[in-house]
Write a structure and sequence with these properties.
The chain is an all-alpha fold and about 60 residues long. The protein contains two helices and no strands. It is flat and about 40 Å long. It starts with 7 loop residues before the first helix and ends in an 11-residue tail after the last helix.
Length: about 60
């Protein structure tokens, strides 16, 4: 299995995206709707990278 490391710039970008997402959730009028949107877009990004998300879903 190949180990891939993130550069500092990639790490910073990832953390900025997470920070923005958390701010969006905090300011959302309908928090459940915003959380559902965040889950949907994150799942799509993971699947685009070939990462199966089904086992990660909480029931």
């Amino acid at each position: 299995m190949e180990v891939m490391e993130m550069t500092e710039k990639e790490q910073a970008t990832t953390l900025m995206d997470k920070f923005i997402d958390l701010q969006r959730i905090k300011k959302a009028t309908d928090k459940d709707r915003e959380i559902d949107y965040q889950i949907k877009t994150t799942k799509a990004k993971l699947e685009a990278l070939g990462i199966v998300t089904e086992p990660l879903t909480m029931e």
